[in-house]
Amino acid sequence: MKKVLFILMLITLLSLPIIAQTYQASKVIDCDTIELSNEEWIRYIGINAPELRNGIPDPYSQEAFEANRNLVIGKEAYLEFDVQERERYDRMLAYTYFDDLFIYTWLVENGYTQIMTIPPNVTYQDLLLELQTKTREENRGIWEIEPVENKKEDSEFPYVGNKNSKKFHHYYCGSVDDMKEKNKVFFLSREDAVEAGYVPCKRCHP
């Protein structure tokens, strides 16, 4: 009996997230990136938010930024890592908790961000996709925004995704011409691409 209880406890412990480090969130860059008190930039794994860039910001970017800031600024951030700990811009990749709040679920449930799964960091992919599906059905947040009507969609597969970037495009987008054939994934609808974890191209706005 003791052996069975020990095994059950071990399984439970192994199933809990590995909280590697804790620091205070000192600055919010946008809805998916923050700066910690140790000056480390954290990129939230597996999600993509509207961008607050110079010029014309993405729709809903200001609302998403403010939501993230109001939730996390000045609070202790608990970091959980996946397979890769850094991305190409040297930002740290982490699943981030604040007190008992898993920031990802809140942002996705309220429509402030979209799923962008890039292997091998896929720990919470299924959970987040399930939440996103419900949020889309309820037209919350970014899902209230109607995509630009497209008059050219006469291709058998109107949308083409890139396996590497996890972005999807209108079939006539210039990015598709530059894409290697082995990296192309074809979709019949915008919804299919989103459900597969792809995010829309910023150039052609599918």
Automatic annotation (TrEMBL):
Keywords: Activator, Endonuclease, Hydrolase, Nuclease, Signal
An individual GO BP term: regulation of DNA-templated transcription
Membrane spanning stretches: none
Signal peptide feature range: 1-20
Enzyme Commission code: 3.1.31.1
Record SUPFAM superfamilies: Ada DNA repair protein, N-terminal domain (N-Ada 10), Staphylococcal nuclease
Pfam family, one: Ada_Zn_binding
UniProt-recorded name of the protein: Thermonuclease
Organism: Candidatus Atribacter allofermentans
